[in-house]
């Protein structure tokens, strides 16, 4: 019978329940503790100043190696997850690897360069690899018309998580002159790992594995590599999905600029505006706060006008930010630029994830998100910092920031050629 019954409608309503969406967003809340403490604020400076003796190039090399590895393995693993119907199992594996390696960073002492590099690379590959599978859950927990809003919730929760863990660590840290200061610095790595572990648990308990209709092959990893190669060929050589290919190229360009600005914001603040460590922590707290607001507001805007128009608006904001950073001369003015950057960070990434979810064919979410998060997301984190470093060395950091306005402009132009799919939910017959 084609008549809809309570039993037939309840699975869909349960699948789109607020509880499952909240559990999904809590994973963003959890893993941002890793990114803000390890990648952005504390371990990066600890490794550079204490472990590597001030050699910043070693930190750049470590980050680049980890992102290259994550970019290479993400597409085939995404395809493998699609075929094996084990997105959650893959996500759990990568998450535990990241958490364990992050906790082990506590044992990295001054001079332990190799250990510090290896543990970070493993932790970052686990973190970045897990995002591929996490993002692929989005189409299964909400309707197409709500991708923007729910994606925005996730990013907003992530920034709230960053604020929470920064508050915990800042309250824990003693005065910089305290003889045990660096013990507490290393203890913050364990706190980040514990935060990641505890708040990721709801994702694995309450968010169900998406149903797959694909027949499970015997060797999913080999199939994953083969499917990944076929997908690359279909996207960028045969152009079977022109809008996806065009969007991925645009995303690679403008996300490259976004990730680079995030990576060098603290360095810019210290070198150009001579901000102290405490001022830098306060600066990041303000950025996270504006990012929470931006993620919520632009999430609703995405559902109103569509992700393509929303991304276009955020790229225009980024253009103004790069120009503003070039002319900024005071800390107060830099805070104004930071507020705009914070709002644009979450909104541009959230809307991009929503557009990718709309463009992606069903049953190939992890595979296509492997290219989105891996090849185009993570690989861009290798190119941008290198370009920034070269320009800054040849000229200055102000001009280096300004040059990235060209990246945003190029991404904006390419984006206009993407055909946005219909967002209305189809009614079951």
Supply database-style keywords.
429 residues, mainly alpha, Growth Hormone, Chain: A, globular, disordered C terminus
Concise synopsis of the structure shown:
The protein is mostly helical and 429 residues long. Helices cover 80% and strands 0% of the residues.
Describe this structure in words.
This protein is mainly α. The chain has one domain: MFS general substrate transporter like domains (Growth Hormone, Chain: A, Up-down Bundle). The protein has helices spanning 6-15, 18-41, 43-51, 56-84, 87-104, 113-135, 138-141, 147-172, 181-206, 220-237, 242-273, 277-305, 307-327, 331-359, 365-378, 380-394, 397-403, 405-415. The model is unreliable at 1-14 and 425-429 (pLDDT under 50).
Secondary structure layout:
Blueprint lengths: L5 H10 L2 H24 L1 H9 L4 H29 L2 H18 L8 H23 L2 H4 L5 H26 L8 H26 L13 H18 L4 H32 L3 H29 L1 H21 L3 H29 L5 H14 L1 H15 L2 H7 L1 H11 L14
Helix pairs in contact: 2-6, 2-8, 2-9, 4-6, 4-10, 4-15, 5-6, 5-9, 6-15, 8-12, 8-14, 11-14, 11-15, 11-16, 11-18, 12-13, 12-14, 13-14, 13-17, 13-18, 16-17
According to CATH, the fold-level topology is Growth Hormone, Chain: A
What structural class should be given to the helix and strand makeup?
A: mainly alpha
Sheet with the most strands, sense and barrel status: none
How many beta-strand segments?
0
Q: Which architecture would the CATH scheme give at its second level?
A: Up-down Bundle
Q: Termini, distance in Å?
A: 11 Å
Q: Tell me the overall shape.
A: globular
